[in-house]
Design a protein that fits this description.
Helices cover about 35% and strands about 20% of the residues. With about 375 residues, the protein is α/β, with parallel strands linked by helices. A hairpin with a 5-residue loop joins strand 4 and strand 5 (about 100-105). The structure holds S-adenosyl-L-homocysteine.
Length: about 375
């Protein structure tokens, strides 16, 4: 059965997946153990895949029995798996209290990218986003965020490595700041997955104060969901713009790009037919980004029921790209992946909510599910 790692997860137990290395060190010091126990434990959990405390042979017997009594290693559970013909996998992952989030694995030639969720639902009402329709439920804990990587890697097996993580699933990661930062630090820890900081990307709708705060505590790559090059339109598409308008957002981007090895910000721009896809829009975008080190990722709109938008035609996207390219901005068009599964973010979980679990069994693949 694909399930929580420990059979007897009890809520009163301390879930050790909730700690990054610093948090674990502090935990061990609190129970009168040496801080280096933290790295030993991380190795057992994330590298050796051992979750039975009895098998953690370099821990003293006393410590093992303490951990058995007071702690658990509890990851969330994969409830549904969909595999597209291009190898993209989408999972609905069950969190405590019966809530669900989505994680998507996108295999490419030289890398494998996992798209991770940070919240159940989302409080930001971006008008073209399917998650927004569900409203906000709650923040995910550290164990629920790192747990997505943990169960995904386990499910994929040793041969298919997750090399990149993008915090582009459900939710606004910067509105769950502490848990997201701890989980990202864990992903990059040499004793866990050891992901390079260039290969971990946080995507934000532009929560300016949190972007500035992130600058001080974490060194990951940043993607900003821009989608419009003027305040009038962005106020409508990404309503948080009313609070943090483009001038402030661009200042925060410039600051963030200055630090460390990051050098540029990736701007995401969803292509909505007749809304933000004209040549004039592209020129305005060039102007807006003229002194921000930028790359642009044009995202073909992913339709969902009653979305009220259409994706710009291919020629329009190409024309838009040409304007940016001629202005010297590195621009990519995101490849649509997993077209034969519920590709748009939030759609699979929408189904989990809409239908009874009995109906959902029809979608479950092979041995991925056991009741
Ligand atoms: N809250 C974060 C992460 C969200 S999703 C953020 O706003 O960045 C990641 C990206 O997918 C965002 O750029 C989001 O605007 C975009 N997106 C959401 N719904 C979409 C859809 N239906 N089609 C294409 N892109 C979409």
């Amino acid at each position: 059965m694909m399930s929580s790692v420990t059979e007897s997860a009890r809520p009163e137990l301390i879930n050790l997946l909730d700690f990054d290395r610093e948090g674990l060190k502090a935990f061990f010091v609190r129970i009168n153990e040496k801080p280096f126990r933290a790295t030993q434990l991380l190795k057992w959990i994330y590298q050796e895949n051992v979750t039975n405390f009895d098998q953690m042979t370099n821990l003293s017997k006393t410590l093992r029995s303490y951990l058995k009594e007071h702690c658990s290693i509890t990851a969330p559970e994969i409830l549904i798996e969909q595999i597209a013909s291009d190898g993209t996998r989408k999972w609905a992952i069950e969190m405590s209290c019966g809530n669900h989030v989505e994680s998507v694995f996108i295999p490419e030639d030289k890398r494998g990218t996992l798209c991770v969720s940070s919240q159940i639902g989302c409080a930001l009402a971006c008008t073209f986003c399917s998650t927004a329709r569900q409203g906000f439920n709650r923040n995910l804990s550290v164990s629920e965020i790192i747990g997505q990587l943990y169960v995904a890697q386990k499910r994929l097996g040793q041969k298919t490595r997750i090399t990149n993580v993008v915090m582009m699933g459900m939710g606004e990661p910067l509105l769950n700041f502490n848990n997201v930062v701890a989980a990202m630090n864990l992903m990059m820890d040499d004793f866990t997955f050891g992901l390079s900081k260039r290969r971990v990307t946080i995507s934000t709708s532009g929560i300016v104060p949190a972007m500035n705060r992130l600058n001080d505590v974490c060194d990951v790559s940043m993607a900003v969901s821009l989608h419009a090059a003027n305040d009038g339109l962005r106020d409508k598409l990404v309503p948080i713009n009313q609070k943090y308008p483009l001038k402030e957002l661009m200042d925060a981007c410039r600051e963030y790009a200055k630090q460390g090895p990051r050098k540029h910000i990736t701007f995401e721009y969803v292509m909505l037919e007749g809304v933000n896809d004209s040549v004039q829009d592209a020129r305005q975008l060039v102007k807006l980004l003229k002194d921000v080190p930028s790359k642009i990722n044009l995202i073909p709109f992913n339709p969902f029921p009653n979305s009220n938008y259409f994706c710009s035609p291919h020629e329009v996207i190409s024309r838009f790209k040409d304007v940016l390219y001629k202005a010297g901005i590195v621009t990519t068009i995101r490849k649509t992946r997993g077209e034969d599964i519920d590709a748009a973010c939030g759609q699979l979980v929408g189904k989990v909510k809409d239908k009874s679990r009995r109906n959902l069994k029809l979608q479950k693949m092979g041995d991925t599910y056991a009741t």
